[in-house]
Structures are given as C-alpha cells and as structure tokens.
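Treating backbone geometry as a discrete language has practical consequences that deserve illustration. The amino acid sequence and the backbone structure tokens for this protein are reproduced below.
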Amino acid sequence: MPRLITDKRKRKPKRLATVNDDCTGCAGSPVCVEACPVAGCMVPIPDSDALPFERIHVDPLKCIGCTKCVGKGPDGTLLDGCPWEAIQMVSLEQYEAGHGDLPY
C-alpha cells in the first residue's frame, strides 16, 4: 500500500479536483478515495438528494492536483480513478474565481 501524504502542502497546486453531480460514492467503496495519495483529501459525505447514499467531497486545502482520482488518461485510456467521470480537474484560477482565494 502506498504511503499517504499527511504533511501540509507546501504550495498551491496549479489545478484542483472537483466532484460533479455524477458522483455516486461508488456504493460505499469509492475508487477515488483509494487512489488519492493525500490522507483526508477525498472523503465520503451523505448525499442529501439520495439518502442513505454518499458522495465524495474534495478538501481544496489538501488537494495537490495529482490527477490520480481522475478515471481517464491521455486519449481516453481508462485508469484507476473515477469510473463515472464525476471528477474534473480545474485550474486554481478557475476554482478561486468561484470560491475565493485559498490559503496555501
């Protein structure tokens, strides 16, 4: 099992993972949480629109922009991340424009 990153990130990433409405929480076994190398970055939360199911929340203060949670690689190759295309990587500028500036 790979070592999880538990240290505070040293700088803001160029991009962040965001979860869209297609997230199903993978029926309680989310692939993205397992793929993420950062402890506590991707966490299941209750899906208020579909209880008792969950969806995934990405902590923008922990995301390092590694893309390991994303399911598709170059030319549409399937990787180990999200099988539902529920995760997109957005630029830090785009994220901060909609959510305000992030510290570190």
Observations:
- Residues 15-96 form one domain.
- The chain has a mean pLDDT of 88.
